[in-house]
Design a protein that fits this description.
- The complex is a heterodimer of chains A (about 170) and B (about 120).
- In chain A, about 60% of the residues lie in helices and about 0% in strands.
- Chain A has about 170 residues and is mainly α.
- In chain A, helix 2 packs antiparallel against helix 3, helix 2 packs parallel to helix 5 and helix 4 packs antiparallel against helix 5.
- The chains are: A mainly alpha (about 170), B mainly alpha (about 120).
- The interface between A and B is large, with 60 and 60 residues.
Chain lengths: ~170, ~120
């Protein structure tokens, strides 16, 4: 990632820097493996969400269970995956793109929720819109927090020594 | 519902996720790491497009592909929550609350705007 942004820790006697050219947005550098992993995970998550939405259609003024369910499950999974990958497992180049960006990103959806809330509001179902919004945010946040805490409860295994074929 | 439609859902869903990765990365690189602008940009732009699609009165398969598969996979609820939760862990409570409030208020406004544009088309 570029280095020219977010460096606000100038010393007390830092000279005024204003000639520095603005960092041009750099597209995220990604190798083929990362892109394939995101694509595969995203496809999987999307199919699961689409199948659920097709199986349980709902009226505009009814609780959108399919969207609600996929969003909360995706939060649970993302909290688990990200915490485990960042704090417990050795570095992996494809797991985060596959499981986090791909599966969880594809499974969850923000836009559908916004359109659902807007439809509730335009149908004057204000209480439903408020409940749905607050329940989604509270449950999503709680799911993420819970999954993160559960992963952190498991102690870190210090070093897994490979003994070159020797068995314990 | 044909197998062809579901094959298309798979491809479109994968592509939407890859597009999210690029847009998020571009916006994050341009705006710094203090606030999750990348996800905000993805989610708001997706809400406009999905609102627009809702105003177009598409057929069932077209709505499934363009709406549920493409825009649905492009936007993300889980990353929005992850970034909010991580901001809270770093004791950035104001930014975490702003991330929720700004996304929700502008998200519904974006959906309404898209619906308005879609209805006018």
């Amino acid at each position: 990632m570029p280095d020219a942004v977010g460096d606000s820790q100038a010393g007390p006697a830092a000279p005024p820097r204003r000639v520095r050219p603005r960092a041009r947005p750099v597209p995220p550098r990604a190798d083929a493996q990362t892109i394939i992993a995101i694509f595969a995970g995203g496809a999987l998550g999307t199919v699961a969400r689409a199948a659920l939405a097709e199986a349980f259609p709902h009226a505009a003024t009814a609780w959108p269970w399919p969207t609600f369910a996929v969003n909360i499950v995706a939060c649970l999974l993302l909290g688990y995956f990200v915490t485990r990958l960042q704090e417990r497992l050795p570095l992996s180049s494809y797991r985060r793109p596959l499981l986090g960006t791909g599966v969880c990103g594809g499974l969850s959806t923000f836009s559908t929720m916004q359109v659902e809330v807007w439809q509730m509001l335009s149908a004057h179902a204000y209480a439903l819109a408020a409940c749905y919004t607050m329940a989604s945010i509270a449950a999503g946040y709680a799911a993420l927090h819970l999954a993160t805490a559960l992963v952190r409860r498991v102690p870190v295994r210090r070093v897994s020594v490979r003994t070159g074929g020797a068995r314990r | 519902m044909s197998a062809l439609v579901w094959a298309a859902v798979i491809l479109v869903g994968g592509a939407g996720s890859v597009l999210r990765f690029y847009v998020d990365g571009l916006v994050s690189a341009a705006s710094g790491r203090d606030f999750p602008y990348g996800t905000l940009a993805v989610n708001l732009s997706g809400a406009v497009v999905l609102g627009l699609l809702a105003g177009l009165a598409l057929g069932h398969d077209a709505a499934l592909l363009a709406g549920t598969a493409a825009v649905g996979s492009y936007t993300t609820f889980s990353t929005w929550m992850l970034e909010t939760q991580r901001l809270t862990e770093e004791r950035q409570h104001r930014r975490a609350a702003a991330n929720i409030a700004v996304s929700m208020v502008l998200g519904v406004a974006a959906a309404a705007l898209g619906r308005l544009i879609g209805g006018a088309l």
